Automatic annotation (TrEMBL):
Location, primary (coarse class): membrane
One Pfam family linked to the record: TIR
Homology family: Belongs to the Toll-like receptor family.
GO biological process, any: regulation of tumor necrosis factor production
Protein name (record): Toll-like receptor 2
Alphabetical UniProt keywords: Cytoplasmic vesicle, Disulfide bond, Glycoprotein, Immunity, Inflammatory response, Innate immunity, Leucine-rich repeat, Membrane, NAD, Receptor, Repeat, Signal, Transmembrane, Transmembrane helix
SMART domains per UniProt: LRR_BAC, LRR_TYP, LRRCT, TIR
Gene3D superfamilies reported for this sequence: Ribonuclease Inhibitor, Toll/interleukin-1 receptor homology (TIR) domain
Keyword Signal in annotation: yes
C-alpha cells in the first residue's frame, strides 16, 4: 500500500510534469510544490543549486556515477529521492546525513558493489527502500537496516546476490512488503528471516529450490502472503522440516512462473502440510512436466491442506496434456475447496467424478478455456458441484444459449452465470434455467435481439457490447441492467423494469433523454449514459442545467456527456453548452419577426403614401418601358402636331376654343386628344406613351383643375420621364389661370424646374389679346 501511494505522489507527479512538454535535456524542472523532475537528462552528477524547497527529486535514467557529501546537504525537506537506473558506484558516508525527512529512497539498477550502513543511519523517517539490481554479492557484515524503525517496504538483492545471513535483516521487526532477488543463491544461513516478526507480503525470486525448505520453515510464523517467483522445482525433493514447534501465520501462497514435475508436486504438497493456516493457493504461469501421476499415499497423508478454500490457476502449461490422468488421486483434497479459478489453461473437460467430489465449491471460474456444450454436459452431470452459486464460463467455445441453460439445470443452487465472450449470435424464444438464477452475463456474445429466453427471475443482466437495437423484455425483479455498447437510440421503457436500481447504457446511439423518462424509473439510483450521440437541443440543455442533483444519478457526469450535433458543438460538454435565445425560442422569435415585418410593411405603406412612393415606382416602371424604345421617334412615325393633356373640367376650353383655333386653321393642325384618339382596350400607359411619341409637341393645359385631376396626374406621370429625359423642347406649357408653384406636387420636380427656367404661354382674359395668344401657340407648335 505504501509503495502505491508513493508511486502516485512522487513518481506520478513527475510523469504529469513530463506531459507538459519535452524536458530540457540539461536542466532540472521543479514545480511550486517542490517536485523536481530530472529524468533522462544525461546528468553525470547530482545537479547543483538544490534548495530546502525540494520535496521530491527524480533523477532516474541518467549517467550519475557518484553521490557526494554536499550534493544533497541543502535538501532538508526532501521526502522522495529516486536515483534508479544510473551508474552510481560510489556514495560517500554522509551523503544522506541531512535527509532526516526522507521517506522514499530508490537506488535500484546501479553499480553498487558494497553497501554501507552509514548511508541509512540518518534516515529515521524512511518507509520505502529499493536497492535491488546492484552487483553486490552480500548485504554486508553488519546490519544495514537496524536504524530504519519506520521502514515498511524493502526491496533487495540481484542476480549477483549469493549469500543471505542472519545479520542481513537484524533490527527489522515489521514489514508490509519485502522483495528479495536471490536467483543464484548459494548459501542461506538458517534463521535469517526469524528476526522479522511479521511480513505482510514476501516476494522471493529463487531459481533453485535447494534452500526452499529451510527458508519456508523460517517464514512459517512470520509471513502472511508468500510469493515464490521463477523457481525451477523439477528437482525439488522434500524430506521434512526440523521444526519442533510452529505457530504458522501464512495464509496465501503463490507460485509464479514455476516449473513442476509429478514427483516435485508431491514434495510441494508435503511441504504445505506444515502451513496449517493456508487458505489460498495460487499458480500463475506455471508449467507441469507430468501427466498428473501424483502418489496416492502421499496425498492421503496430507490432512492439513483440507483447510485450503481458494485455488487459483492461471496460464497453466502441461506439455503432455493429452496423457494427463483423471485427477482421482487428489479427490480427497477437493472436498473443502470453496473457490476455484482455472483460467486460460486449455481446459475442455472437468470429469464428472471430480465435479461430484467438489461438494463445498461455491465459486468456479473456467474463463478463457476450450469448453463446449458436449463436454460441459459431462462436467455438470447429476450431483456435480452441489453447492455451486457462481459459474464463470467467459470466452469459451459455447454456441447455444438454450443448450447451455438446459445443461446447467443440474446446478440447483446456481445464482450467477457468466457466459460472456462466447459466440451465440442468436437466442431461441424459450429456454430453461436453474430456478435460483439471479445474475446472467451475456456481454460480447454477438446477439442481435433478446427474447423470453432470458429468465424472469433475474436481478442482474449484462448484455453489453452486442448488436441490440431495442429492449422490450418484462423483467419484474431486475435491479441492474448493463446494456452499454449496443445500438439503442432511447432508454428502455420503465414499465418493463419496475424495480430497476442501476442502468448502464453508455456508448449506444441515444440522442436525448428527458426528465419524464428518468422520473418514470421510480427506484433508479445509478444511471451511466455517457458516450452517446447526444443532440444538444434546447430541451436537453434545459433539463440537464435545471437539475442540480443530476450528478447524483449520472455517475459519469459531466465528462462523458458530449454534444454530437449540431456540428459546431461537437465534442463540447453538455454541461458547458449554451444556445442562443433564437435557437431555443424559435416560435417566439418567428412571431416577433412576423410582427416586426408587419409593422415595417405598414410603416412602409404609410411612408409610400405620404411621400408618393407608389408614384415613384410607377414612374420607374414607365421609365423602364420607355427606355426600351428608341430615344428619338422617326419623322415618318409622327402622326400628330401636338398631344394635349388637360383636365376634364377644362375640356370646354380645349374642345371649343383650342380645337377650333388650331384644327380649323389653314393649314390645319392635327391634335391628339385622349377622348378621341386613344385606342380602345389598349393599356393606358401604352396609349399615353404612344400618343406622346407620335406627337411633335406635347401641350399641357395647366390650371388648378389640372393639378387636382387624377387623370391629368396619370398622363403627366407616365410621360414625365420620357419627355424630360430627352432634354428637348417638345413641351409647351399653357396656363389657363395663374397657378402658385407651391401647389404643384413635389414629385413633378422637372415640371417645377421647367416652369422656373422656361417661358410658358398664359391665356389672357382680355379678348383683345387672345388673338396674339393663338398666334404664339401656333408658332410654338410649328417650331
Amino acid at each position: 500500500m505504501f509503495h502505491v501511494l508513493w508511486t502516485a505522489w512522487a513518481v506520478g507527479t513527475m510523469i504529469g510534469l513530463s506531459q507538459e512538454g519535452p524536458p530540457d535535456q540539461t536542466s532540472l524542472s521543479c514545480d511550486r510544490a517542490g517536485v523536481c523532475d530530472g529524468r533522462s537528462r544525461s546528468f553525470t552528477s547530482i545537479p547543483s543549486g538544490l534548495t530546502a524547497a525540494v520535496q521530491s527529486l527524480d533523477l532516474s535514467n541518467n549517467k550519475i556515477t557518484y553521490v557526494g557529501q554536499g550534493d544533497l546537504q541543502s535538501c532538508v525537506k526532501l521526502r522522495a529521492l529516486v536515483l534508479q537506473s544510473n551508474e552510481i558506484s560510489t556514495i560517500e558516508k554522509d551523503a544522506f546525513s541531512s535527509l532526516r525527512s526522507l521517506e522514499l529512497l530508490d537506488l535500484s539498477d546501479n553499480q553498487l558493489l558494497n553497501l554501507s550502513s552509514s548511508w541509512f543511519q540518518p534516515l529515521s523517517s524512511l518507509k520505502f527502500l529499493n536497492i535491488m539490481k546492484n552487483p553486490y554479492r552480500t548485504l554486508g557484515d553488519v546490519p544495514l537496516f537496524s536504524h530504519l524503525t519506520n521502514l515498511q517496504t524493502l526491496k533487495v538483492g540481484s542476480i549477483h546476490t549469493l549469500l543471505i545471513k542472519r545479520v542481513d535483516f537484524a533490527g527489522l521487526t515489521f514489514l508490509e512488503e519485502l522483495e528479495i532477488i536471490a536467483s543464484n543463491l548459494q548459501s542461506y544461513e538458517p534463521g535469517s528471516f526469524k528476526s522479522i516478526q511479521n511480513i505482510s507480503h514476501l516476494t522471493l525470486h529463487l531459481n533453485q529450490p535447494i534452500f526452499l525448505g529451510e527458508i519456508f520453515g523460517d517464514l512459517l510464523s512470520s509471513v502472511e502472503y508468500l510469493e515464490l517467483r521463477d523457481t525451477n522445482l523439477n528437482s525439488f525433493q522434500f524430506s521434512g522440516l526440523s521444526v519442533t514447534e510452529t505457530n504458522p501465520l501464512i495464509r496465501k501462497l503463490t507460485f509464479r512462473n514455476a516449473l513442476f514435475t509429478d514427483a516435485s508436486f508431491n514434495g510441494v504438497l508435503r511441504l504445505l502440510q506444515y502451513a496449517s493456516t493456508l487458505v489460498e493457493l495460487e499458480f500463475d504461469g506455471c508449467t507441469l512436466n507430468g501427466v498428473g501421476d501424483f502418489e496416492p499415499s502421499d496425498v492421503e497423508e496430507i490432512r492439513d491442506l483440507r483447510n485450503i478454500e481458494t485455488i487459483t490457476i492461471r496460464r497453466l502449461h502441461i506439455p503432455q496434456f493429452y496423457l494427463f490422468y483423471d485427477l482421482s488421486t487428489v479427490y480427497s483434497l477437493a472436498g473443502s475447496v470453496k473457490r476455484v479459478t482455472v483460467e486460460n489453461s486449455k481446459v475442455f473437460l472437468v470429469p464428472c467424478s471430480f465435479s461430484q467430489h467438489l461438494k463445498s465449491l461455491e465459486y468456479l471460474d473456467l474463463s478463457e478455456n476450450l469448453m463446449v456444450e458436449e463436454y460441459l454436459k459431462n462436467s455438470a452431470c447429476e450431483g456435480s458441484w452441489p453447492s455451486l452459486q457462481v459459474l464463470i464460463l467467459r470466452q469459451n467455445h459455447l454456441t447455444s444459449i438454450e443448450e447451455t441453460g438446459k445443461i446447467l439445470l443440474t446446478l440447483k443452487n446456481l445464482t450467477s452465470l457468466d457466459l460472456s465472450r462466447n459466440s451465440f449470435h442468436s437466442m431461441s424464444e424459450t429456454c430453461q434455467w436453474p430456478e435460483k438464477m439471479k445474475s446472467l452475463n451475456l456481454s460480447s456474445t454477438q446477439i442481435h435481439s433478446l427474447t423470453r429466453c432470458v429468465p424472469q427471475t433475474l436481478e442482474v443482466l449484462d448484455v453489453s457490447n452486442n448488436n441490440l437495437n431495442s429492449f422490450s423484455l418484462f423483467l419484474p425483479q431486475l435491479k441492474e441492467l448493463y446494456i452499454s455498447q449496443n445500438k439503442l437510440n432511447t432508454l428502455p421503457d420503465a414499465s418493463f423494469l419496475p424495480v430497476l436500481l442501476v442502468l448502464k447504457i453508455s456508448r449506444n446511439t441515444i440522442s436525448t433523454f428527458s426528465k419524464e423518462q428518468l422520473d418514470s424509473f421510480h427506484k433508479l439510483k445509478v444511471l451511466e449514459a455517457g458516450g452517446n450521440n447526444f443532440i444538444c437541443s434546447c430541451e436537453l440543455l434545459s433539463f440537464t442545467q435545471e437539475q442540480p442533483a443530476l450528478a447524483e444519478v449520472l455517475i459519469d457526469w459531466p465528462d462523458n456527456y458530449l454534444c454530437d450535433s449540431p456540428s459546431y458543438l461537437r465534442g463540447q460538454r453538455i454541461q458547458d453548452t449554451q444556445l442562443s435565445i433564437s435557437e431555443c425560442h424559435k416560435t417566439a422569435v418567428l412571431s416577433g419577426v412576423c410582427c416586426v415585418l408587419l409593422l415595417l410593411i405598414l410603416l412602409t405603406g404609410g411612408l409610400c403614401h405620404r411621400f408618393h412612393g407608389v408614384w415613384y415606382m410607377k414612374m420607374m416602371w414607365a421609365w423602364l418601358q420607355a427606355k426600351r424604345k428608341p430615344r428619338k421617334t422617326p419623322i415618318r412615325d409622327i402622326h400628330y402636331d401636338a398631344f394635349v393633356s388637360y383636365s376634364e373640367q377644362d375640356s370646354y376650353w380645349v374642345e371649343n376654343l383650342m380645337v377650333q383655333e388650331l384644327e380649323h386653321f389653314n393649314p390645319p393642325f392635327k391634335l391628339c386628344l385622349h377622348k378621341r384618339d386613344f385606342v380602345p382596350g389598349k393599356w393606358i400607359i401604352d396609349n399615353i406613351i404612344d400618343s406622346i411619341e407620335k406627337s411633335h409637341k406635347t401641350v399641357f393645359v395647366l390650371s388648378e383643375n389640372f393639378v387636382r385631376s387624377e387623370w391629368c396626374k396619370y398622363e403627366l406621370d407616365f410621360s414625365h420621364f420620357r419627355l424630360f429625359d430627352e432634354n428637348n423642347d417638345a413641351v409647351i406649357l399653357v396656363l389657363l389661370e395663374p397657378i402658385e408653384k407651391k401647389t404643384i406636387p413635389q414629385r413633378f420636380c422637372k415640371l417645377r424646374r421647367i416652369m422656373n427656367t422656361k417661358t410658358y404661354l398664359e391665356w389672357p382674359r382680355d379678348e383683345a389679346l387672345q388673338e396674339g395668344f393663338w398666334v404664339n401657340l401656333r408658332i410654338a407648335i410649328k417650331s
